[in-house]
């Protein structure tokens, strides 16, 4: 098979799929504005863009989930109008969703059956499922229920389900966002194989290095419009990012001369039983975090990061006060408010519902975390002017874009709300900041602002603990990186020493060789 | 012997409306919709069922009237809770209040009238077998139908593709929509099935249980049916066991009073609800993972188009 190039010669005269002038309008808002895209057989085609650039809208239209407002879709040269996903599947278009479209309380086989058209018996389908999963090296037990499976296994179900329809064209929406590097590598092997079989793949990802490595063509969307179609191998990650953002992304710089002073956050042999049936048990977690230092915690979601956050923030209390020490004071038994008074601040992963009360105004949300230690309450009465001032300061310092001075939290976009939440905590000048997934689902510009703020806070002497699934982010800002796996925390590695391979091994539950640990401890 | 047989017959008769109504609600809830209006749909079914039978002289047509009335009531619910995405709990409660009022209006003219109740099966020799004869071969048609209904629902839910799709909608409507299933249409059918069952269960009361109509004659059976669905942890097999258990409790309560047992009757009436709460606690203690209730139960779904 020839290596297809974006503007070069393709075998065959018409592309497998072509959209021309594809437009999707929601009220006044153009989610997709006249998008032309060609997909050829044996091609891995990347679809790049920031959040809200229109990637999901485009693939939903191609998969028949939404109807385009204007423009047309051609499949093998024929104009098609899809009334639903089952029609798309009949043509040979398969899709693997970003937020898995699985049913937790059904078995693997039932989940797969639901994604097929049901023309074969359940027994035949199960047999074929086993065969497909063996052929592509994607092992699955058809009888298990989905809630028992890991994220990687769940994605396997999605992929096998799509492959069982023998698709000519497969759409993958951010498939590696939740995988360990090793799991991602396995996925790439499967994708290369699908490509070699002559299938086309549309690959949505935020990870530019991955796109450069895997994809033959890249189409970049910005603000609902197509910016460019190019060969990603001939671009740099920086040039791709420029096209996505439409300008330079400010590079995050660590301030020099950071002082590592006294330990501000110490966790000593913290163990906690799981809070519910789905929870993870925390086992013997210990680390020490000095002022001026950023400790990164990597790991695949669901390995105890949420539980650790709850234990540090005081959402769950520990029987032994000495397991969590903030600013030299045993705080394991103290409530969130008491911990805030000691100088700690917390930014949870979930923005709406955990980080903020969605239907409350920003000023009220500022009060919710600031009441303990920011002088917003006087003799039991709210100082409205002070809460509004806090909103204004966060808005100014962190460039929070909003329609009015004090809107409801839910009305802000994800990136702006995250800037507000991080700003709200940072402006309280905390001694210890515990932040979980600071830039999850946030566009590149806002992410850079948030990372820079974390670095500046550390430079000012605070201790910062960052939990993230994004290894690039941790490499960029953390001094040391530890990995959580099954409720245990590895010894921290110096960031300079924490290669993707090493972290990936730890994230998959392997332990490093003894000399590496010795090396890490010495660092 | 006579007494035991009489008690078993009475338990079956008392359990049948619970079983029919709960079977319908089970299907509705398995699709992800919580319809608290069972009591309202039942009482309208009772009034219309009696009216149908009185006007035509046919119990069968009366039963059909009851089912149609229950279905129409459930369509009001479907329009509100599915079409307009109104809160399901509020809509269901409103439906019950509406049903109680409506049934009084429809049934007002029929109070004091009598009909010939549903015939009981009689097979010579078989029905005459002592003890089990009348229990197995001497029931009215509703009893046999209720058993066939729950077996059919079990088979539908676990052995057919349509049943799998219905359970999928109840587990995760976003995923079901993403795979191209018409979630709202499927749920509407499930709600209609629940309404038809509730209407039939209501009609059973004046057509077979007591051959006349009294306002408010469902007397909380719709609420017991709702509790029963939870008690069964949304499984058809346990639903049958629970229905007969709850039916037995109501009958025992009557006999206990007759025998002069010193337990207040109010306590006995409360037993089904108490049992439901205990089962809920046991279930949540014993659970290792996953959810026993349909995960999307009672949540509003608005597809984006």
UniProtKB/TrEMBL annotation, chain A:
Belongs to which family? Belongs to the ABC transporter superfamily.
Ordered alphabetically, the record's keywords are: ATP-binding, Nucleotide-binding
Question: Upper taxonomic classification of the species?
Answer: Bacteria, Pseudomonadati, Pseudomonadota, Alphaproteobacteria, Hyphomicrobiales
Q: Could you tell me what this protein is called?
A: ABC transporter ATP-binding protein
**GO: which molecular function terms?**
ATP binding
The ABC transporter domain covers 17-248, 265-511
What exactly does this protein do? Involved in beta-(1-->2)glucan export. Transmembrane domains (TMD) form a pore in the inner membrane and the ATP-binding domain (NBD) is responsible for energy generation.
User: Per its UniProt record, what InterPro entries does this chain match?
Assistant: AAA+_ATPase (IPR003593), ABC_carbohydrate_import_ATPase (IPR050107), ABC_transporter-like_ATP-bd (IPR003439), ABC_transporter-like_CS (IPR017871), P-loop_NTPase (IPR027417)
UniProtKB/TrEMBL annotation, chain B:
This protein's species is Bradyrhizobium diversitatis
Task: Provide this UniProt record's keywords sorted from A to Z.
Answer: Cell membrane, Membrane, Transmembrane, Transmembrane helix
Stated membrane topology is: Multi-pass membrane protein
**Transmembrane segments in this chain: where?**
6-27, 34-55, 61-86, 93-112, 141-158, 189-207, 213-232, 239-256, 262-283
Q: Does the keyword Signal apply?
A: no
The protein's matches in InterPro entries, at most eight in alphabetical order, are given as: ABC_transp_permease
Superkingdom to which the source organism belongs:
Bacteria
Q: What is this protein called?
A: ABC transporter permease
Q: What is the lineage of its organism?
A: Bacteria, Pseudomonadati, Pseudomonadota, Alphaproteobacteria, Hyphomicrobiales
Chief subcellular location: membrane
Its localization reads:
Cell membrane
């Amino acid at each position: 098979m020839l290596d297809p190039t974006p503007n070069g010669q393709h075998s065959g005269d018409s592309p497998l799929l072509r959209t021309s002038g594809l437009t999707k309008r929601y009220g006044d808002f153009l989610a997709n504005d006249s998008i032309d895209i060609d997909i050829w057989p044996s091609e891995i085609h990347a679809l790049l863009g920031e959040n809200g650039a229109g990637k999901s809208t485009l693939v939903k239209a191609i998969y028949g989930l939404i109807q385009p407002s204007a423009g047309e879709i051609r499949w093998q040269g024929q104009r098609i109008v899809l009334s639903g996903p089952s029609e798309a599947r009949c043509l040979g278009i398969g899709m693997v969703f970003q937020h898995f479209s699985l049913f937790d309380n059904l078995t693997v086989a039932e989940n797969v059956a639901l994604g097929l058209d049901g023309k074969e018996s359940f027994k035949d389908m199960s047999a074929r499922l086993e065969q497909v999963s063996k052929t592509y090296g994607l092992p699955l037990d058809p009888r298990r229920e989905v809630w028992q499976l890991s994220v990687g296994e769940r994605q396997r179900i999605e992929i096998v389900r799509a492959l069982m329809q023998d698709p000519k064209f497969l759409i993958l929406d951010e498939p590696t966002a939740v995988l360990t590097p090793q799991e991602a590598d396995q996925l790439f092997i499967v994708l290369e194989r699908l490509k070699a079989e002559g299938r086309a793949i549309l690959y949505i990802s935020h990870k530019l290095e991955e796109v450069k490595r895997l994809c033959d063509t890249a189409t970049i969307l910005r603000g609902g419009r197509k910016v460019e179609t190019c060969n990603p191998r001939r671009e740099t990650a920086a040039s791709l990012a420029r096209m996505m953002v439409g300008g330079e992304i400010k590079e995050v710089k660590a301030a020099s001369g950071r002082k590592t002073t006294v330990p501000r956050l110490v966790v000593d042999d913290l163990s906690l039983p799981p809070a519910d049936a789905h929870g993870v048990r925390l086992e013997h977690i210990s680390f020490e975090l000095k002022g001026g230092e950023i400790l990164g915690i990597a790991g695949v979601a669901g390995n105890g990061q949420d539980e650790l956050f709850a234990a540090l923030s005081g959402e769950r209390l520990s029987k032994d006060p000495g397991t969590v020490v903030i600013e030299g004071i045993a705080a394991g038994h103290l409530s969130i408010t008491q911990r805030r008074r000691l100088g700690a601040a917390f930014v949870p992963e979930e923005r709406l519902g955990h980080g903020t009360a969605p239907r409350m105004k920003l000023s009220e949300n500022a009060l919710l975390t600031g009441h303990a230690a920011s002088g917003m309450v006087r003799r039991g009465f709210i100082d409205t002017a002070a809460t509004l001032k806090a909103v204004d300061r966060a808005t100014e310092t962190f460039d929070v874009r909003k329609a009015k001075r004090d809107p409801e939290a839910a009305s802000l976009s994800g990136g702006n709300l995250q800037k507000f939440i991080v700003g709200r905590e940072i402006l309280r000048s905390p001694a210890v900041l515990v932040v979980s997934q600071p830039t999850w689902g946030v566009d590149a510009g806002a992410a850079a602002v948030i990372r820079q703020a974390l670095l500046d806070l550390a430079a000012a002497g605070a201790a910062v603990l960052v939990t993230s699934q994004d290894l690039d982010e941790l490499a960029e800002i953390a001094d040391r990186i530890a990995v959580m796996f099954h409720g245990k925390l590895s010894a921290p590695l110096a960031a300079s020493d924490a290669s993707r391979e090493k972290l990936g091994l730890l994230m998959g539950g392997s332990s490093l060789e003894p000399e590496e640990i010795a090396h890490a401890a010495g660092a | 012997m006579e007494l035991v047989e009489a008690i078993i017959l009475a338990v079956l008769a008392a359990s049948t409306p619970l079983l029919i109504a709960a079977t319908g609600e089970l299907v509705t809830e398995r699709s992800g919709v919580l319809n608290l209006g069972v009591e309202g749909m039942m009482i309208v079914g009772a009034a219309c069922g009696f009216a149908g039978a009185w006007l035509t002289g046919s119990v069968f047509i009366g039963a059909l009237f009851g089912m149609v009335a229950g279905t129409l009531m459930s369509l009001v619910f479907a329009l509100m809770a599915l079409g307009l995405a109104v809160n399901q709990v509020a809509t269901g409660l409103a439906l019950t209040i509406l049903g109680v009022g409506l049934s009084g209006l429809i049934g007002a003219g029929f109070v004091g009238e009598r009909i010939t109740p549903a015939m009981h099966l009689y097979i010579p020799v078989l029905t005459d077998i002592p003890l089990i004869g009348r229990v197995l071969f001497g029931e009215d048609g509703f009893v046999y139908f209720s058993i066939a209904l729950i077996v059919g629902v079990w088979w539908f839910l676990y052995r057919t593709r349509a049943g799998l799709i219905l359970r999928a909608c109840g587990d995760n409507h976003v995923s079901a929509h993403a795979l191209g299933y018409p979630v709202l249409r499927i749920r509407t059918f499930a709600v209609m099935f629940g309404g038809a069952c509730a209407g039939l269960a209501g009609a059973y009361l004046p057509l077979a249980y007591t051959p006349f109509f009294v306002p408010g004659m469902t007397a909380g059976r719709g609420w017991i049916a709702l509790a029963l669905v939870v008690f069964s942890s949304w499984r058809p097999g346990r639903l049958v066991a629970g229905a007969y258990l709850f039916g037995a409790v109501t009958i025992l309560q009557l006999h206990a009073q007759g025998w002069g047992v010193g337990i207040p009757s109010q306590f006995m009436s409360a037993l089904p609800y108490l049992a439901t709460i205990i089962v809920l606690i046991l279930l949540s203690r014993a659970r290792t993972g996953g959810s026993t209730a349909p995960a999307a139960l009672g949540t509003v779904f608005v597809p984006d188009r």
